Amino acid sequence: MKKNIRQGVPRKDLSNDFNYKPIRLNKFISNSGVCSRREADQLIKLGMVNVNGKVVTEMGHKVLPIDTVKCDGQIIVVKKPSYILLNKPKGFLAMSSGKSAKKVVQDLVKVPGSEKIVSIGEMGRTVTGLLILTDDLSLRKKIIQSNKGVRMIYKLVLDKNISKSDIEIAKKTHRVFDKEIQLKDVSHIRDATKKDVGIECFNIPPKIIIKLFNKMNYTVEQIDRVIYGSLSKKELPRGNWRELTLKELNFLQML
Question: 105-152 pLDDT, tens per residue?
Fold first, then answer.
């Protein structure tokens, strides 16, 4: 079935799936904005939370988004989290900080509360390709800090031809921005020029790849993320977005 790709309409089937996905009670409460997850734990221990009319004091208790949850007698309403896959165009900035800027990726996504979604990782204005945005900060933290990491494939266009010997050097362990990194694979792209390079790596942001090639006396003229985990740009034109399917979301949460 063809994915629903538009500039302002989320997938209806994801909304239905969300209603049957259990989450921890403390996360349910914190997602509502009432308090932090740690404070929610204290409220649960004190017997101040009930689910569908029954007091719950069990840590780790799970609820469905369609359950009725009350905290100190007040019904808690939780907005469905947004999980957005964007094929980022040039000219827009993806920031992990809360700083304001002109032409940010959030301007491209039209969902309720889009001002609260943040990108998982950063992308400069010249970088293109796949980017995930969400208001689920626990998932964002999990992906960024994952030991396993998310598999990523980039296509680069350099300012000059790169030799096979330099490709082998690029595969070695390097220290960039005071951090040791190693690319899983580096190769020329088939049926392209010697300036075109494919990069396979895990959880390495574009700016580090750009810096690495700068250290090797190459300028990265174009960089495009074409694979993000199990996600590809298939049927997702540049500048467009769609919501992740439940299957895609579950894959990310397994990291």
Answer: 999 998 776 777 899 999 999 999 999 999 887 788 888 888 778 999
In a domain, residue 7? The reply is no
Q: What tokens were used for 106?
A: 């959030």
Torsion of CA 239, 198, 201, 224, to 10 degrees: -20
Q: C-alpha 143: how far from its chain's center? A: 7
Residue 98 CA: distances (Å) to CA of 69, 82, 117, 211, 227: 31, 18, 11, 24, 26
pLDDT (tens digit per residue) in 7-29: 443 444 444 445 557 889 998 88
Phi, psi of 86 (to 5 degrees): -115, 135
Q: What is the CATH number of the domain that holds 191?
A: 3.30.70.1560
140 and 208 assigned to the same domain: no
Nearest alpha-carbon partner for 71 in 99, 113, 101, 30: 30
pLDDT in tens, 201-229: 999 999 999 999 999 999 999 999 999 99
Torsion of CA 139, 238, 246, 105, to 10 degrees: 30
For 131, how many CA atoms within 13 A lie in the half-sphere containing its CB?
34
Parallel/antiparallel/unpaired status of strands 220-228 and 128-134: parallel
**142 and 155 both lie in a single domain:** no
Q: How far apart are CA 174 and CA 182, in angstroms?
A: 6
